[in-house]
Write a structure and sequence with these properties.
The protein is of the alpha/beta class. It folds into two domains: 9-89 and 253-415, Beta-lactamase (3-Layer(aba) Sandwich); 95-249, D-tyrosyl-trna(Tyr) Deacylase, Chain: A (3-Layer(bba) Sandwich), CATH 3.50.80.20. The chain contains eleven helices and 16 strands. It has helices at 32-44, 76-88, 127-133, 143-150, 208-222, 251-260, 264-279, 284-296, 318-328, 334-339, 400-415, and strands spanning 48-54, 59-64, 70-71, 95-104, 109-117, 124-125, 139-140, 155-156, 160-163, 231-233, 241-247, 315-316, 342-343, 363-370, 373-381, 387-394. A six-stranded antiparallel β-sheet has the order 2-1-16-15-14-13, sandwiched between helices. Strands 4, 5, 8, 9, 10 and 11 form a six-stranded mixed β-sheet that branches. Strands 3-12 form a two-stranded antiparallel sheet.
């Protein structure tokens, strides 16, 4: 799922970050910043902050309470996905493996067990599910069956185990007391169909790993591989041998879905994967430590509690959001982050916004919404070649439609600056 790219020469420029603590002053049109501040307060009240940076000059064009941290809502995903793209690599893929213990005889009988081992892939599922609900972005679990048969296995004397031990077994985040959230499926190191229990969005599975293994076992039996129907949880032995593997779509495609459609399940799985790979454990807390350290290393900062922004205490300032986005531009993953954000008026959470403004088709954005919170941050690539970075964090919202309208007007003004 790749979309129209805004690829300007300025994107590749390496510029020094302008800090709001001692900003340069841009020659803004008279009343420009006053107009932005007025719209900010109208949409979000006094508990709102704003920063607009002219990338080409490094100057702060407009700021209001830009250094004060506020609830990020889904702007948290910018920190999660920037970290994932950089630490994991835009073109990396997440494996799901089948391992075996025991001996395979000449007749194709495995005298031992099979293990379906999750690698933390949020996209694992069935094509019928992810084609309908994930814009076609998915990893086909059924493809493992042909690989298992190609390995010569025709029967298994033991059992099929589900190994989800790359992550802990907490199903949610702080917002839901770490139980399954009503807003996202149960988190698992061996996810399946985004945690749903059936072909539609008709309730969550009690154990995604068992459901994945049970589904695989059923397909194998239909393809004449003799296998006991009973499934269990179990960690693969260290000496187990790989029988088959499938890999996720490119990480940048997973990030694209995460940011364009603000997919909470993908974001929460990615932060656990960061913890598993780089933080010493596949937990939300360990992943949040990796994300916070990444932000500090990019002239930014964030109080990260989860990966998606569902928990209200995820927070950063407009300056920290802008600093992250500015710093990312000079990295190998920066262009991917930009292109994996929603194009104003055309995609995802902003498909119906910013029409009739200069931001339409020229700004890559990330929204963020909780009760009383509405945020919009991103990049604008103006007609005259200027590149602008902005962050609007409204934490006193009473009327969401009004907040969106004022944000859209602010973005339009930025895009025509």
């Amino acid at each position: 799922m790749r979309r129209t790219r805004l690829c300007l020469a300025a994107i590749c420029a390496h510029l020094v970050l302008a800090f709001v603590s001692s900003p340069a002053t841009a020659a803004a049109p008279e009343g420009f910043c006053d107009g932005l501040r007025s719209r900010l307060l109208r949409g979000g009240g006094n508990a709102s902050g704003l920063l607009v940076l002219d990338v080409d000059t490094g100057a702060t064009v407009c700021a209001r309470a830009a250094g004060r941290r506020r609830s990020l809502a889904s702007n948290t995903k910018l920190f999660t996905t920037a970290t994932a793209l950089t630490r994991l690599g835009p073109r990396s893929r997440i494996p799901t493996r089948v391992l075996s213990s025991g001996e395979l005889d000449a007749d194709g009988i495995l005298h031992g067990n099979l293990y379906l081992v999750g690698g933390g892939d949020p996209a694992l599922g069935t094509p019928s599910f992810y084609d309908r609900y994930q814009a076609g972005v998915g990893t086909p679990l059924p493809a493992l069956t042909t690989r298992i048969k190609a390995a010569g296995i025709r029967a298994v004397t033991g059992r099929l185990y589900a190994d989800d031990t790359i992550f802990d077994r907490l199903r949610g985040v702080a917002d839901s007391g770490y139980a399954t959230s009503p807003y996202i499926g149960p988190l698992s190191g061996l996810a399946f169909d985004a945690g749903y229990r059936g072909p539609g969005l008709n309730g969550f599975a009690s154990d995604p790993a068992k459901l994945a293994a049970s589904t695989l076992g059923g397909i194998l039996r239909k393809q004449d591989v003799r296998l006991k129907p009973r499934i269990a949880l179990g960690k693969a032995p260290h000496d187990a041998e790989q029988v088959a593997v499938i890999r996720s779509p490119l990480l940048t495609r997973l990030v694209d879905l995460t940011d364009v459609y603000s997919d909470n399940f993908f974001a929460e799985t990615l932060i656990k994967l960061l913890g598993a790979r780089f933080g010493g454990g596949g937990t939300t807390a360990k992943g949040a430590e990796v994300v916070a350290a990444f932000a500090r290393g990019h002239d930014s900062g964030v109080h990260a509690v989860d990966g998606s922004g569902l928990t209200r205490s995820n927070s950063a300032s407009p300056a920290e959001v802008v600093h992250l986005l500015q710093s990312m531009r000079s990295t190998f993953a920066g262009e991917e982050l930009i292109q994996d954000m929603a194009l104003a008026g055309k995609e995802g959470t902003v498909a119906d916004r910013m029409h009739g403004t200069a931001a339409f088709g020229r700004c890559r954005t990330k929204t963020g919404t909780l009760t009383g919170v509405s945020n919009l941050s991103g990049y604008c690539f103006n007609r005259d070649g200027k590149t602008m970075i902005f962050s609007i964090l409204m934490n006193g919202v009473r009327d969401l439609s009004l907040a969106h309208r004022e944000q859209d007007r602010i973005a339009g003004a930025i895009a025509s600056y």
